[in-house]
Each structure stands twice: as C-alpha cells, then as structure tokens.
Design brief:
By secondary structure, the chain is mainly beta. The chain is about 5% helix and about 35% strand. It has one helix and 28 strands. The longest helix is centred in the first third of the chain and has 17 residues. The N and C termini lie far apart (about 85 Å).
Length: about 425
C-alpha cells in the first residue's frame, strides 16, 4: 500500500476536528437540570442531553434501567470485534446546571454487544455477536457475575448483532441475522435456494430459547420463524400463554429511496417471512422474479416506510404517557427515519394506525444538530423516555418542560 502524499495527509488531518464536531449538538437553553437539545418533541416536553462522547461514549446501542436510578448501556464500541463495553450511568442529584450523567465501565472487551434485556429471573441478559450471557445486578461498585446462556452463535457476515427479547413462560427470542444483504455476490444472480435458510441452524431467523430448571438453563434452542433478514427490533406484547411476538424487518438495501418497504411482522412458529425471495406484501425481490412463489410466505402485519431502519421496539409501560403503544426507534437516513415513534395498540392488541411522533424533525441542521441516529430506547420507573444514538454518541431523555413563569407585575406608583 502506497503512503499518502504529505499534502493530502495534512488535508485529512485538518478535517478530523470538523468531522468530530459534526456529531455534536448546540444546546439551546435548559431542559430540567440538563442542557436542552434542538430536537422536536410533543408540546410541553423537551429533549435533554445526559451524556455524549465527553463521558466516553463510543457507539451506544441499548439502554436499560436495572435498578432505581441506575442505567446500563450496551456500547458496541465499533464494528471491530471486542471493542465493546457494558457501562453504568447514574444521574447526579445535585450540582449546578446543566448537569451531566456519570458513566462507569462495568465490562470491556465485549464483542459488538447490542442486546440488553431484563430476564424473568431478575438478571440482566447481554447479547454479544456470538453469545448471550447474564448477570445479577450487583450493588453499586460491585463486580458482575457472568453466566453464559448461549454461545457459538454466528458472529460473521453482514448482520452479526444479536437482539434479544423475553416472552411469557421464560421464552427468550434471539435474532440471528442473515450473512448478506440479498443472498448474492457481485453481479451474480441471487442464490436459489439461499444457503442462509438451509440446515438445522439457518440464519435470517428469530430463534426461541426455552429457559427452565432450578438454574434457568436453556432446555431447547431452535428456529422460531425464518426468512427474516435482520431482526434488530423484537418485542413481545402480552396476549395469551405465549404473547404476540413482533419483528421490525430491516429490508434489503435497494438504491431506490422509496423501496423496498420495511415491515412489521407478527411472528408465528414455523412460518417463513420472505427473505431473500420476497419483499413487502409478497412481492418478488430483485433477481427472484418468476423464480420463487411468494404466496408461500407470510405477509407483513403492516408496512413501514422504506429504509426507516427499525433498531429497537419496546411496549410502552402502563401508567406512563406511552401506555398502550409500541415504541420504535427508526434510525434510517431517509426522510422517514431519524425519529422515535409510537403505534397505538388496537382492540386486538396489535399496533395499527399512523405513528405518534415522540422525537422528530431530527434532520441535520448546520450549527444546531446532526441527523438523529436513535438505536435504543427504554422507559424508566419515573415514566421518562430515554434514547441512545450510536453514531452521534449520546444519551437523551424526554422530559416535561416547566411552564415559563409569569413576569412580575410592575410596582404601583
């Protein structure tokens, strides 16, 4: 590899500060005790900046309140293996405004951690690229007690990240993403059948782990639903013995900004949902026209905008402003993306209708903000929505905005 000419190298080095600054926000006043960011939110609310790269964040993907006032963050670090960390965030109870969260490192050297969930045993489950492990929540400053739950999961290819979600009956659902975008190499026609979907351990699938026994070990681990390119958004809504398993599909990367649509799928055991042969409502994917019968696949529950990139879904907790909604982080760069939305649950318990905007108008605006890149969500015990961004390296919180105080009346003469 030839060395870069000195003149080009100087230009690249000079550009580095500008690139770093492009990730930042310019605060506009106060949001509670924190800096307020210029991100649109419902009337009477504001968006607070809790932490960013100044606190050491690199690529936060998930956030979860594990104990009152204690939040754990899965920070992927980068796409390079074993650069990830598990962090703990706490909010200061006093001090001058604007306050900043405190971040401590609980574990380092993790392999692209992305999944983070509280299990029925009260332990926190962490999904790395090749494994899922759990730990009890220690007291402040205490050490983790790691227990391997699943290992030897595929950690290569285009979609190595693991999303995890719990359902009733100690069921754990795990994303095993496809190894490629569309099961094709270069200009070659896409493969039929696609190797990812073959064998006893197919990829492009959501797996189900049945936990049980005195130690809550894995009793069975098998594919639950297949034909799913990359299930980084998984949620289980309460309904019956097994719940309603929902999946937000990150569809194939066409160059067309309007196609193919993302999907919200209601997963059923043993069903195939189309990838890589079909997109949208049972339409043939590019390269599979006339080669595969899409009528054999399950149709989506609903379609979402193309390239919205759903990266996490959570049910809105009861007794919060988000009750009765499915909350979704849309990370995509198209106009449909870079926002946090909610979908109201209908009488059948399923999300429907138009999205409710919670964080929106999050496009890039010079000198004010970068484009929003939300990757993870949680609602804490106080009913506050928190979001993390990987590319912009932030932790944000949606807060009620105190009404402006009325001006003092002029003194009488």
């Amino acid at each position: 590899m030839r060395a870069l000419p000195l003149s080009i190298l100087k230009v690249l080095l000079a550009a580095l500060p500008a690139l770093a600054a492009a990730r930042g926000y310019t605060p506009q006043g106060a949001c509670g005790d924190f800096a307020r960011l210029p991100i649109a939110s419902p009337a009477g609310t504001c968006v607070a900046l809790l932490a960013d790269e100044a606190e050491g964040l690199r690529a936060p993907r998930r956030i979860l309140e594990v104990a009152p006032g204690r939040y754990w963050i899965a920070d992927m670090g980068s796409w390079e293996p074993r650069r990830g960390r598990l962090l703990e965030m706490t909010l200061p109870a006093d001090g001058p405004a604007p306050r900043r969260a405190r971040i401590a490192v609980l574990a380092s050297g993790l392999d692209r951690p992305s999944g983070l969930a509280l299990g029925p045993d009260g332990k926190v489950y962490v999904g790395e690229a090749g494994q899922v492990w759990r730990t009890a929540v220690p007291g402040p400053g205490g050490a983790l007690q790691r227990e391997t739950v699943l290992d030897q999961l595929p950690a290569d290819g285009t979609h190595p990240l693991k999303e995890i979600a719990f359902g009733p009956g100690n069921r754990l659902y795990v994303n095993v993403g496809s190894s490629s975008d569309a099961c094709r190499e270069g200009s070659q026609p896409p493969a039929l059948p696609c190797p990812d979907g073959q064998g006893e351990r197919p990829r492009a699938a959501v797996y189900e782990a049945q936990l049980g026994g005195p130690q809550m070990t894995v009793q069975r681990f098998a594919p639950f639903a297949t034909g799913l390119r990359n299930s980084m958004a998984l949620a289980v809504l309460p309904d019956g013995a097994e719940g309603l398993v929902l999946q937000g599909e990150n569809s194939i990367d066409y160059r067309d900004p309007q196609s193919p649509p993302e999907e919200l799928n209601l997963l059923q055991r043993g069903r195939h949902y189309g990838w890589p042969y079909c997109v949208g409502k049972r339409r043939s994917a590019q390269g599979y026209e006339g080669r595969y019968d899409c009528a054999k696949t399950e149709a989506p529950l609903t379609l979402w905008p193309a390239h919205a990139a759903p990266l996490q879904m959570i049910p809105g907790p009861a007794n919060t402003p988000f009750a009765g909604q499915l909350l979704v982080a849309w990370r995509g760069p198209q106009a449909s993306g870079h926002r946090v939305v909610g979908f109201r649950l209908g009488k059948d318990g399923l999300p429907a209708g138009k999205p409710v905007d919670w964080l929106f108008d999050w496009h890039a605006q010079g000198g004010m903000r970068p484009m929003g890149r939300p990757t993870g969500l949680t609602v804490d015990r106080a009913g506050r929505l928190l979001a993390v961004e990987d590319y912009n390296r932030t932790v944000l919180m949606l807060l009620r905005q105190a009404p402006a105080s009325a001006p003092n009346p002029a003194p009488k003469k």
